[in-house]
TrEMBL record:
This is DUF6268 family outer membrane beta-barrel protein. The keyword Transmembrane helix does not apply. It comes from the Bacteria. It comes from Hymenobacter yonginensis. Residues 27-50 are annotated as: Disordered. Residues 154-277 form the DUF6268 domain.
Length: 370
């Protein structure tokens, strides 16, 4: 009974890598197929032959590779220059080298419901971004705070996938995160809470082609904003495909084998942190403004990347990624007063980066056709 239950919930894990790797189809009420029947490749997120039983539409397509249930990710950048220009009178400029910028990311996803017409996924994540500067203390309040405390994100999300019929589907996702330099002994939820969401409506034209349009509310571009999104997942042949959620990311995929996939493209990443200052910053000639005790950091970066994913053993895969990071902004805004004035305009020099990742996928024996 337990084994049967596990087998029924495992297809839901295809949702867990985010929008580009959403849930696969479940057996239809009628045995009559809706789409042409391509041969399913081993290593697809569906079971071998599952395409033959496909009835309800979802955004995923053949060849997208294994879905991710638990992810461990570490990313590192070498030394790069940092330049900060004060935007208000009374603060100083700053220029130095950061000898380290590293990110640790842990994500996990839990299938909550797997019905043919409704699929629910709960996700949790923990992220930690660290900076180290060549000369410490920097004597610059913002960066001394960052180096001493690091920047953390703790979040949870709920994804709802609704296959409407054989062609149409829609997705709704809401996510809440605590993001900033908080510690367990000093945490105010109202200060650090960040909420994002997205809605996409789409069409499954064939097992190899799915697309959709919608809106996203989030911090991809540093500050909370609403922007349009276009999802485009397409597999052209047994080797090549593309997975995109424009404008946030576009990725070309090459299926070297069922156990080895290569990717190339770009991503736009946005981060929004709350930083509590140890020593208040005082602006000159602005007696109507309170001393700055809290700053909001808005970070936006574009990564041009290449990636390789490879099976280690059945349910365990690794990913290796390298590329070039272009930092668009790392700006600090006033969170003490109500005007949200820009206080510091910062730029990081472009730099290469590399990351390693381990992730767990559904074991192959549970994906075999029953």
């Amino acid at each position: 009974m337990l084994l049967s239950s596990i087998r029924r919930t495992l297809p839901l894990l295809a949702l867990l890598g985010g929008i580009p790797a959403l849930a696969q189809q479940t057996p239809p009420v009628s045995p009559t197929p809706v789409f042409p029947r391509p041969a399913a490749t081993p290593g697809d997120t569906t079971a071998s032959g599952a395409i033959d039983r496909q009835e309800f539409a979802t955004p995923s397509v053949v060849g997208m590779g294994p879905s991710k249930g638990l992810i461990f990710h570490y990313e590192r950048m070498p030394t790069f220059g940092v330049t900060s220009n004060a935007q208000v009178v009374g603060l100083s400029d700053f220029s130095a080298d950061a000898k380290k910028n590293a990110r640790l990311v842990i994500k996990g996803y839990i299938p909550m419901l797997n019905h043919p017409h409704l699929k629910l996924i709960m996700g949790v994540n923990y992220e930690r971004e660290e900076f180290q500067f060549r000369s410490t203390p920097t004597r610059y309040e913002l960066y001394d705070n960052i180096e001493n405390k690091a920047l953390k994100t703790l979040g949870a999300q709920l994804a709802v996938i609704r296959p409407v019929n054989e062609v149409n589907w829609y997705i709704f996702r809401v996510k809440g995160e605590l993001s900033g330099d908080y510690t367990s002994s000093a945490l105010s939820v109202s200060d650090y809470l960040r909420v994002s969401s997205e809605f996409l409506y789409g069409w499954k034209r064939s097992p190899n082609f799915s697309w959709g349009v919608g809106l996203q509310l989030g911090y991809t571009f540093g500050r909370q904003s609403i922007y349009p999104a276009v999802l485009y997942n397409r597999t052209f042949n047994s080797r090549w495909g593309v997975e995109a959620l424009f404008p946030a990311r576009i990725t070309a995929r090459y299926n070297a084998s069922p156990k080895s996939l290569f990717f190339a493209g770009y991503t736009v990443d946005g981060f929004n942190y709350i930083v509590k200052l140890n020593n208040p910053l005082v602006r000159q000639n602005q007696s109507d403004k309170q001393p700055l005790r809290t700053l909001e950091l808005r970070e936006t970066e574009v990564k041009f990347r290449g990636r390789w994913e490879r099976e280690i053993y059945d349910f365990l895969w690794f990913g290796a990624e390298a590329g070039y990071r272009y930092n668009y902004a790392f700006d600090a805004f006033d969170r003490t007063n109500a005007d949200r004035e820009k206080i510091i305009d910062s730029k990081f020099a472009g730099a290469p980066y590399a990351s390693l990742e381990l992730f767990i996928v559904p074991p192959r024996k549970f994906l075999k056709k029953q």
